[in-house]
Write a structure and sequence with these properties.
Blueprint: E1 2-10, E2 16-25, E3 30-34, H1 41-48, E4 56-61, E5 64-65, H2 74-78, E6 81-84, H3 96-106, H4 111-124, H5 140-152, E7 158-162, H6 170-185, E8 189-193, H7 197-200, E9 206-211, E10 214-218
Parallel strand pairs: 3-8, 3-9, 6-7, 7-8
Antiparallel strand pairs: 1-2, 1-4, 4-5, 9-10
Helix pairs in contact: 3-4, 3-5
């Protein structure tokens, strides 16, 4: 699905923050991305999401080399990639239901075609009773699950989650992990960026470890 070949990244004239990254994200795979703060995890996720281009090397996404993809095609490709941002990025004036349905509304879909799917997904993540709630009255864990549901509603082929358990207690972190594992079981490739070693120890999954700008892969 996604392949990096000797990728390097620097911002402006500064030093490279990522060096010689070679990586393959297979279909239906599950992997953790870890490393110390400032190691470049978010930058790597941004390249996976096609919102940041490397300064050198090649990135292939769904069979296309990123540098050759016309700008007009990028939104279409990004719809195949779900993202759970660390800061949620929910719209406070929209209900839980409306936040989750937003990607489908933006695409011009009629609500009659997606309402049932949105409600079913909200029940799946445990928010069936919170569909009319606005983000300011939701707990951190509830906001996280809204963000996850919004990332999943367009049925992505790959899900990228940036510190998805960083603002929740351990029991809820385990519940969110089970959601990701179930999603993976249903066919979506998952990349979870996390500092939580205890969380990673619960799953026998590949680990991508960034350290000093370089990537180590532990299968």
């Amino acid at each position: 699905m996604i392949r990096f070949e000797n990728v390097g990244l620097r911002y402006g004239l500064g030093p490279e923050i990522l060096r010689d990254i070679s990586l393959h994200i297979p279909k239906q795979s599950f992997q953790f991305l870890s490393g110390p703060s400032g190691a470049g995890k978010t930058s790597l996720l941004r390249m996976l999401f096609l919102s940041l281009k490397p300064t050198r090397g090649l990135i292939h996404v769904f069979g296309d080399e990123v540098s050759t993809i016309p700008v007009a095609r990028l939104p279409q490709l990004r719809r195949r990639i779900g993202v759970v941002f660390q800061d949620f990025r929910l719209l406070d004036h929209m209900t839980t239901y409306e936040n989750v349905a937003l990607p489908l509304r933006v695409r011009g879909k009629d609500e009659t075609a997606y309402r049932k799917d949105v409600l079913e997904l909200l029940r799946w993540v445990g928010l069936g009773e919170r569909i009319h709630a606005l983000p300011p009255v939701l707990s951190g864990g509830e906001k996280q699950r809204v963000a996850i549901a919004r990332a999943l509603i367009d049925q992505p082929e790959i899900l990228l989650a940036d510190e998805p358990t960083g603002n929740v207690d351990p029991p809820l972190a385990r519940r969110l992990l089970r959601l990701f594992l179930e999603l993976n079981r249903l066919g979506t490739a998952v990349v979870v960026a996390t500092h939580d070693a205890a969380l990673m120890d619960q799953v026998d999954a590949r680990r991508l470890i960034l350290n000093d700008g370089r990537l180590e892969i532990h299968d």
